[in-house]
Write a structure and sequence with these properties.
Radius of gyration: 23 Å
Distance between the termini: 31 Å
Order of helices and strands: HEEEHEEEEEEHEEEEEE
Low-confidence stretches: 1-35
């Protein structure tokens, strides 16, 4: 049961530096010119990371499940780019809910969001809001990448908070998808990311299976097939079931399809249009 929501959530940090002052000789001799500080002591202007997405990018997916061609919809969007936690961040959201006749069987709504630092591409804050059959829960992770800690809070009928220790460059599930889009891809390569999801520290291992022509209702697209696997803190796989993501073989690296096998059938997310 846990594999499905986790896949949906995967599918659904001013630098200050001081300059050395030149020594001044005693009067009445004039002071010598200030010495040039070493290159390592000079603050370099920060540069935002190049990314294949932009504010306004909105991707809508049809969700198929257990024989239903369209059991729900999911929308993933880069909403804005704004000052955030002393830096600048992309605000990215993902929302998913079933179509009306499925909702009658089991009302379900998920909203996942993340603030991704434009300079480091590391998350500043991430949250997951869920409403499952009337039961609401908000899970928030506030990252301190410098201290390698995070504050994890869960609000439901009660509120609980705890501190997590993090490895360097830890991501949340949604930011991991966007970081994956920025990386160079080569068939057979494997990439590892530490990921925090619902208070758990996991490791996402992404294998690039190779290029593949993918046919959907929107047509045939040249893609890279990516095969993610999730491991727990002990290095054990959280599931043996297959998960795959297809990214376009172009500069945008758009996710056009995602699929996951679960105990309740195969879930698929297919981009409605490009």
């Amino acid at each position: 049961m846990r594999a499905c929501p986790r896949f949906v959530r995967i599918a659904l940090s001013a630098i200050l530096a001081s300059a050395a002052l030149g020594a001044q000789a005693p009067a009445p001799r004039p002071a010598p010119p200030a010495s040039r500080p070493p290159a390592s002591a000079v603050a370099k202007p920060r540069t935002e990371r190049a990314v294949p997405f932009a504010v306004g990018e909105t991707l809508t997916y049809d969700i198929g499940w257990a024989g239903f061609l369209t059991a729900g919809t999911a929308t993933v969007a880069v909403r804005e780019k704004k000052p955030s936690y002393g830096s600048t961040a992309y605000y990215i959201t993902a929302e998913g809910q079933p179509v009306s006749f499925v909702a009658k069987l089991y009302p379900l709504y998920y909203k996942v969001d993340t603030l991704v630092d434009a300079y480091s591409l590391l998350p500043q804050r991430a949250s997951i809001f869920s409403n499952e059959n009337g039961h609401e829960k908000l899970r928030t992770t506030l990252f301190d990448q410098r201290k390698r800690t995070a504050t994890y809070e869960v609000r439901s009928t009660t509120t609980t908070t705890r501190t997590l220790r993090l490895p360097a460059e830890a991501l949340d599930a949604l930011s991991a998808i966007y970081v994956m889009r920025t990386l160079p891809l080569a068939a057979g390569s494997t990439l590892d990311f530490p990921v925090v999801d619902s208070g758990e520290l996991l490791r996402l291992r992404v294998t690039v299976a190779g290029k593949e022509a993918l046919s959907t209702a929107a047509g045939t697209t040249a893609t890279w097939r990516i095969e993610p696997a999730i491991f727990d803190a002990q290095g054990q796989p959280t599931s043996t079931r297959k998960v795959a993501v297809w990214l376009t073989d172009d500069a945008r690296r758009t996710p056009v399809k995602m699929s996951a096998d679960t105990d309740f059938g195969t879930f698929s997310f297919v981009l409605r249009n490009r």
